[in-house]
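P.,

For your records, the input lines for the assembly:
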Amino acid sequence: MGQDNSRRDFLRKGLATTAFAMLATSQADAMSLQIPGRDEKNPKYIGQKGKHFVMVLDLRKCIGCQACTSVCKIENEVPEDQFRTFVTETELGEFPDVRKGFLPQLCNHCESPACVPVCPTGATFKREDGIVVVDNTVCWGCGYCISACPYDKRYFNKRTKTADKCNFCAQRVDKGLLPACVETCIGGARVFGDINDKNSDVYKLVSNFSTNVLKEAQGTRPQVFYINLDSRLEELSSSTQSLDDIVKAEEGFQREWMKARGGKDNG
Amino acid sequence: MDNLQHVATLISSITIEKPWGIDVPNYFWFTGSSAAAFIISSFAHVFGWEKYKPIAGVALLMAFVLLVAAPLNLIDDLKQPGRVLNFFMYGWENFPTSPMKWGVLLLMAYPILIFFEAQALYRVYFVKNAQKSSGIKKLFHTAFAFGNMDISKEALEKDHKRGFMLGAIGIPLALAVHGYTGYILGAVHANVMWHTPLMPIIFLASAMVSGTGLLIILIPLFQRFLSERKKVDNEMVATLAKLLSWFIVSDLVMRFLWLTFSLTFANGEKYALYSYFSLHFVDTLWIDYVLCLFVPLVIGFTKLRNTPAVVYFGGIVTAIGVWLFRWNTVIGGQEIPRTTPGFLHYSAPIFGQDSIVAILSNWGILFALICAVLLIFPWDEEMEDCYEGAENAK
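Structure tokens returned:
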């Protein structure tokens, strides 16, 4: 009897201790206010303390060559038909007073991003140097951040099946290099740097020129600043009809368009 | 604006992909209808309205199955469904600002609560069935009675109290479990259609409509083909039709407030919204408002509600109409462009994740769950007792 009792007791105590230990370790390892990479203070997740990276886009210098678009795809292995950055090409004015308008667009790395607070897994967050990143090993692909971004600068990466976006080429910046798009910009329209550094180009540009941000009314405080931003370019991007198609239809380009695309043309 | 169209022409841009497909409106419809079914069951269980007593049990069971089936839509909508655990382990610092975080907790708490409420309601019948049967059947019924075989007056009073308590807690929970879905959309300030504090209320109002519509279709089916009486309670059908009309009134009021403000008195976004509704004016007006709301409204408020076939028609069109409203809100809201000109277009794929087949499978699961709860719970005995009680009282 006595032996039986002590064995049972031993088993009971043993089980309880094991269960408690398992629970405690799993709790300590698993539950997190943030995500493991940030808890571990991994420099990739924390960023460069004391710095604040911004980009200035000098639209006077952009010629719409799309070199940034293509180099970004190569550097960041962006899947086919998906883009972290691109340049919208627009025709402004009426003949003969016309000119081209280019609007390079990328993640604005907002000071008050709409995408970060809604993320239910904490996979997307803002580093201490202001760069908004996505941990694609944590993201579960719910798409809430993609819906929340007023700039449409997030997408589901076809390869990783997670939310993806421009990260200011953090992998390069952390090594002291420039983002690929800045490096390749032939007109020097893209300028990148630490705005906390008073000797930086971005500090001087933002201080000396009047700059604008996209969709200021959204209250996201974008950290990508535009010089010489034509308000018509912004109007265009929030208008609801494909102006290109309207003009083509009005001007009768529809048939030519069909021909160019190899469609049937009976006219 | 018009002038601008002649001076700016887009030559090239990128077509934007949108994240939420057909799973999401379907999910919203399920949770909404569940909340409505729960509220209707609470009319009897919490507010003590005798009129709704016979259908309160079935409504509760429907609330349960709808909410068990609903989250499957969400898992299917995830691009990385294998990472569901990440939700529970990480990112709790976003709890105050991510309605999705609240939602999953609500989605887990609510069906458990309904299950216990249903158990409290049906325990006495499980006990009676256990006393009548033997072997594995007895074991089964005893298990559902949670081993509590006491059916003395005091014990039943206790059950009733427990049911009342759970029902009372359940009402805010039911409102929250659907209200949060509207909150998810309303919180997205980037989307001109969704961004209104009214969104959770609009969702609740239309949910009451779809849930009542669904019960109008299901309850007569159960009564006619599965109950002991094999007879439809036409008076109940008329009662539900009238209730539906009142819910439609509240839905219309909410939508009136929403649309008049956002189309007329909003900031610059109103142009985009105006274009959207101009483009969809005919189908929205005739299908969404006239056929699916106004016609059932008239049915419920006139003598037409005494003709069951007409009421069934009203129930079906409202249930479908609210599904379409969910679709128009979720998909339509995403079709409005934010950075590129021209509306985007989405059509659901037939196969695969987030597809028409996925939705149909979800409905299949709902059907299977309905069969399961109707088999397990002694709903028809309880319903019969309610009717007999009412007849004796007369």
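Two observations worth noting. The first strand of chain A starts at residue 53 and ends at 58. Chain A is about 35% helix and 15% strand.

Regards
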